[in-house]
Each structure stands twice: as structure tokens, then as C-alpha cells.
Amino acid sequence: MSHISDGAPVTPEQSIPWVIGAVAVTLLLASLNQTIVSPALPVIVGELGGLDHLTWVITAYLLAATVVAPIYGKLGDLFGRKRVLQAAILIFLAGSAICGLAGNMLTLIVGRTIQGLGGGGLMVVAMSVVADVIPPRQRGRIQGIFGAVFGIATIVGPLLGGFLVETTSWHWIFAANLPLGLLALGVISAALKVHPERRRHSIDYAGAVLLTTTLSAMVLFTSLGGTTIAWASWQSIGLVLLAIAALIGFVAVEARAKEPILPLSLFRNNVFVVSNAVGFIVGLAMFGCVTFLPLYMQTVQGVSPTNSAFAVLPMMMGMIASSLVAGVVMTRTGRYKLLPIVASASLFIGLMLLTTIGTETSPVMVGVYMLLVGMGIGPVNSVSVTAIQNAVPYNMVGVGTAGATLFRQIGGSVGVSAFGAIFAAGLAANLAGSASEGHAMSAAAIAQLPPAERSLVLEGFVSALHPVFLVAGIAAALAFIIAMFLREVPLANTLRREPESEIEAEEHATAAAVGG
Prior knowledge:
- One of its GO terms (cellular component) is plasma membrane.
- InterPro entries: EmrB-like, MFS, MFS_dom, MFS_trans_sf.
- It holds the Pfam family MFS_1.
- Its main location: membrane.
- With 516 residues, the chain is an all-alpha fold.
- It is built from 19 helices and two strands.
- The longest helix has 34 residues, at 397-430.
- It has a two-stranded antiparallel sheet with strand order 1-2.
- The protein is globular.
- It folds into three domains: 1-202, MFS general substrate transporter like domains (Growth Hormone, Chain: A, Up-down Bundle), CATH 1.20.1250.20; 205-257; 262-506, Growth Hormone, Chain: A.
């Protein structure tokens, strides 16, 4: 089936500051809704019931947002970023409205699913819009700002969610999306100009279905495995087999598709493959830290749940600062290869230092370690998106950008699941034979234990965290090695430039070195 597209790329005569502002608001919406709901979950369960379905409030959004990301990227390439982004915002707002009005857990989960179906496109298409209006070299600074927005949302989300729950109602967590989303929609509609270009396109329906099946099975396995379903259960094994079968089918279909949803040629592009491999590992390490550091601060350092969000502020400050610096470096030099190498080295050092924390470690020292971790995470996303957009053909900018988002999200999902299993196994082994074995390990419960028992439990708790940070550190070392193989294609100063081939880039780099 063919379709007519009027979604030609936009021209430089845009209201660029307005476009960038609207994109930033859109990214803020997408990022906030990954973290803002967590503080409200106990209150939601208390009001709506459905404790056995609680995890689906988070999983439904994550699953939907992940599986549609590459599809949105391709649709943006085929039909134009403006109309696809507008559709994503409207879907997201519809889901938000359903969540805000939900009177039972099922309705809330349905709303979160619809939110995710829109939210998956917000980040991907919004970042692709930048490629339509700003040349790659100047794009680095903007992507650095967007990376800072993501960092801010990670710390602001739980705080804002907690504040809204305490002062109003959990319904306002979702209602607050409506004015921001409508503002972004209005600015994008007014500022982003599209010049019609009629072309016929073939939709890769089979590829879309198989990719959705693959990603769904992967996300469900990593999100539910070890918690809702046992790792060795028939459900887990079935999800793994389904993911493998769908992936094999997807590769076979994409090799023959006229306009594949995720072109296999991208996986022959050095920049795409290396950048996404590093992004996957950094996503894994980031979500592991974001999950377990607040837990450490609450349980061992004795801070409140609200203050534990502030406790990870050094990591977020490191992310924001390093993301902005990376953007400036890319804009001024037109180079980016050194950035992920330095970032992954900082990440490795910070994670290895976290393996030394104990029950008596100063919060200041923990803050320094987290700062190093944040400095290692910050540049990776902005560098990956900028480098990939510069290195792929213009008609693949959307799917290339989607790849950067997709691999980071999958890395995060795998990280939370794997680190959770490592921590649980370590904690069970450390407390084996003690009076606390098999008991709930909440901070409040631990605080009520006799001093000697509490000391034993806290030592076991901290010891169980060390393997988590060690494995994350080993992953960061692997990212450092992989980043060494990144081939640098100098960032272009012109808009809509088709990148030179890797052979041409190598020849030009050699000539420049000889000339220098």
C-alpha cells in the first residue's frame, strides 16, 4: 500500500528559538513521565486498589514508549516530522487525560499505555526536528542543552510527583501535562514550517509488527522477570523464545523491504553501531545507579524518601554540566570522538569508587563519587544523537535518532532487572542464617531492629550493593574500549548535508593529518 507524503524537510527560514523551545518542552514532558509517577504509587494503590497490578503502571508506559520509538522515527522520515510530532503530542495528552480521570486501576493502566504510545514519539521525533533546522556542528550545543533537560527531569520528576501528591491529588500528576503539552503543540504548529513535497511511500507493516513483538517480549522479560514472574518460569522462557523468533523474522523481512522500518544498512555504519553500543551500556549503568543510590541513602544513611531524591543531586549536576560542556566542545571543534572516551572513563572511576562505600562513608564522599558517575553519563546521549544524525543519510535521520533512544532505554531496562537480581541474591546470601533472613528490608523496619542486628543487616545491605556497582563498572570499562573504535566524521556546517562515506572520511582525515 502506498501513501502520499507532504512532509518534506523544513527549510532554514524557521523561528528556530521557538522551535528549540517547543522541542525542549516536549522532551521535558517525555522525560518527566518516566519518573514522576513513582512517588504516587502507594497513594494510587490506597485509593484504587489493585496492588497486584501496580508494576503495570510503570511497565505499561515503558513498554509502549519503547516499542513505538523506531516506528515514529521512520514515520517522521517518510511523512515529515511536524505532523508526526503533532500526532504524538495529541496521543500523549489523550493518555494523560485518561490517567487523570481514572477511577480504577485498569483505566489508569490503559491511560498509561496510551501515554506511552505518544511519549515514545515525543523524544525521538523532537530530537529529529533539530536535524531539520540546524546544521550538525551547531546541533551539538543544542543537543547538550537537551541532555541537560533530561538530567533535570530525572531529579525533578520524583520531587514534583511527591509534591503534587502531598499538596493536591495524584490526579494532578497527569493533569499537569495538559497545559505544557498544548503549549508545545501550539508553538510547533506555528513555528515549524513545512513545504509540501508529494512522494509515494511503501509502509513496512510486517517489519513494524515483528519489531514491536521483539521489543515487547524483551521489555516484558526484563521488567517482569524476577518479580512478577520467575526467571526460570515457562512465561520467562516463552518471552525469550518469542523475542528470538520475532527478531529472526524481522531481520529476514527487513532485508527484502522496499522501505524498511529499521534499515539493516544502519548496522554497517560504524558511528551508529559504536554510539548505540556505548549508549546501551551507559543506560544500563545509569538506571542501576538511579535505582540503588536512593535506596542506599534511605536505608544506610537514614535520609527521608524526599531527601533521598536530593541526595542524587550531585549525579544530576554532573550529568547537566558535562552534557552542556560536550555540546560546546562539539560546536567549537566539530569533533566528538574523544567525548565518549573521557565520559566512560569518568563513569568507570565513579562506579569503582562506589564499590568502596560502607555504613560509615561520608555523604560528601558519596556525593563526589556520584558526581563522577553523572559526568560519565551526561555527554553520551547528546554525542550519540549528534554523531548519528551527522553520519547517516538524511532520509534515515529519524530512524537513526530512534536507535539512539531505543538502545539507551533497553539498556536501562536490562540494567534495572539485572542489578535487581544481583542485589537480591547478594542480600539473601549475606543475611543467610541471621534473624532478619526473609524479613522485609524497608528502612523503617531496619531502624526498629536492636543495634547489633541493625548493624549486621546494614553491613549485609552495603555488601550486596558492591557487586552491583562492580558489574556496572566493568560495563563502563567495556564502553571505554568500544568508544575507542568510534570513527569520527567531522560535523558539517551546512544543513541537510549527505554524509561522506567512511572511506572518504578516512581519506580526508589522512590528507588533513599529512597537510598539518
